[in-house]
Request: fold
Amino acid sequence: MSDHALLGKPAPDFELQGTDGPFRLSDHRGERVVLLFYPGDETLVCTKQFCSYAARPDDMAALNATVVGISAQDVDSHEKFTANHDLNVPLLADTEKKVAKSFKVVAPVIGVRRAMFIIDEEGIVRYAHTHALGVTFLSVDDIAKELAKLGPAPEPAAA
Reply:
């Protein structure tokens, strides 16, 4: 499902605690941001998904985008999940599902749907994909392909 209500609109701003500390979306203007919503830590498909990213650190780094995972578990759960599988994507705790609701990816029973959003340098949602069943996920190559459709990424600002 890629005909999402937020496409072409400003992404809802949020701040969540995560495995790398607090993350506020608006602090990442000027960068491309990939939001990976997922149902839960240590579940079969989610573990496969995030381990597939950890297995390809160079390809993840080459995305030239800030990539974060978001689910309803707390930071402690995310830290254990990250440590258990040596994950390389920071995970954000949306324990009240406020962010998932603002991105329209909450569903009965499963809670948070597996979904990916790409937000451009101006904070506009340029890509949205919500998985109907959640048994598949987008690979590093899929993410790279969608980012490439936006054209060349801006050069990182000099520190």
User: Anything to note?
Assistant: The longest helix spans residues 44-54. DSSP finds five helices and nine strands in the chain.
